[in-house]
Write a structure and sequence with these properties.
Blueprint lengths: L10 H13 L6 H13 L1 H17 L6 H5 L8 E4 L2 E2 L9 H8 L7 E4 L4 E5 L5 E5 L5 E4 L4 E7 L2 E8 L1 E5 L8 E5 L2 E5 L3 E5 L6 E6 L2 E5 L4 H4 L1 E3 L3 E4 L7 E2 L11 E8 H9 L5 E4 L8 E7 L3 H12 L1 E4 L5 E6 L11
Parallel strand pairs: 3-5, 8-10, 19-22
Antiparallel strand pairs: 1-2, 1-20, 4-7, 5-6, 6-9, 7-8, 9-12, 10-11, 11-14, 12-13, 13-16, 14-15, 16-17, 18-20, 21-22
Helix pairs in contact: 1-3, 1-5, 2-3, 3-5
Length: 339
């Protein structure tokens, strides 16, 4: 179902908005700005598509800007494969992530979609989908791949249940009704905040992107598991460990990218497999310890496998249908500390 406000915007307008957003991230010449202004003002749908694209991109940068973001060379950002301090993606091909972020998130019928308000509803995404839902109170929920959220609003409450997957919640302020997200093991409570909740692992992980978020455990001693996260902090629900800082790259999943910061290859493979029917496998469990930093398009397992193989000198076997197997070309022991 598509938001009525978006129904009149053709897909090619979203594509154009994404291209304009990408062009305006560098040092923009005056004639480019004039051309952009003319395009934006030519049709109200152009302005709406561009504003929507820009909002999604801003969301992905809320925790701060990466080196590329600080230099505003965002057109170079979609695929980075860092090896220590060096970029190892040379020759692997770059694509403009802004086109994916800005156009994909709002294109009806694509892997990303915007759906309409509801007081009580069930929203779900299939493998590879990321969907943005605008709720009746003005809150916005972005569902990651293979995610299911149930929504029930009443006069005195705003309650959602995250049954599987991961979601980002942008909460509209409401002094009368707290915004509650229930998950196995407890619930997350906020009034005016932006936060991620993931139940892809247990216990659930919560990341406060903006504004305070309260965690409430449903364990035998709820008070012991109660915790407040400030903006920029993340924690496991019901855990006793102190909150940790949120990785700026990890918080950008709403853009359709997998952001990684010294992440074990085994975890990266598990993450990218959640988005794709084609599965990546590691032939040697020792490869799982290799450390990966950078960003990958979540829906491109072929490019991911090619980049990992080139960076770590591995073979990528595509002979089995629906599977890519990464294996070492050498019999020597693989060092997990290698980057």
């Amino acid at each position: 179902m598509t938001d009525p406000g978006e129904r009149g915007i053709p897909a090619h307008v979203h594509d154009e908005a994404g291209r304009w957003l990408a062009r305006r991230q560098g040092e923009v010449a005056a004639d480019v700005e004039r051309a952009f202004a003319a395009w934006r003002d030519a049709d109200p749908r152009h302005r709406r598509a561009y504003d929507e694209a820009e909002r999604h991109w801003r969301d992905s940068l809320m925790l701060g800007r990466s080196d590329i973001g600080r230099t505003r060379k965002l057109g170079r950002a979609p695929f980075l494969m860092q090896r220590s301090t060096h970029v190892g993606a040379a020759g692997l091909g770059l694509a403009v992530v802004l086109g994916l972020v800005s156009a994909g998130l709002v294109q009806p019928g694509g892997p990303f979609a915007l759906v309409s308000p509801a007081e009580a509803a069930v929203y779900r995404t299939g493998v590879g989908e990321i969907r943005t839902v605008r709720l009746a109170d003005g809150s916005v929920v972005t569902l990651d791949t293979a995610t299911l959220v149930r929504v029930t609003f009443a006069a005195g409450s705003r309650r959602l249940v995250l049954e599987r997957g991961r979601a980002r919640f942008r909460v509209a302020a409401d002094s009368r009704r707290p915004f509650v997200v229930a998950v196995p093991g407890g619930e997350v409570v906020a009034r005016d905040a932006v936060f991620d909740v993931s139940v892809t692992e247990q216990p659930a992980r919560v990341a406060a992107i903006g504004g305070p978020v309260d965690l409430r455990s449903s364990g035998p001693d709820p008070a012991a598991g109660a915790q407040r996260l400030a903006a920029g902090q993340q924690a496991m629900l019901g855990g006793s460990a102190a909150p940790k800082p949120i990785s700026r790259t990890e918080a950008r999943w709403v853009s359709g990218m997998l952001g990684l910061d010294a992440t074990p290859l085994g975890d990266v493979v598990a993450a990218i497999n959640r988005y794709n029917d084609t599965q990546v496998r590691l032939a040697d469990e020792r490869l799982a310890g290799l450390s990966v930093t950078g960003a990958f398009r979540a829906r491109d397992p072929q490019e991911f496998a090619r980049a990992i193989a080139a960076t770590f000198d591995l073979d990528a076997d595509r002979s089995s249908e629906g599977q890519i197997t990464l294996s070492s070309r050498h019999s020597a022991t693989v060092s997990p500390s290698r980057k």
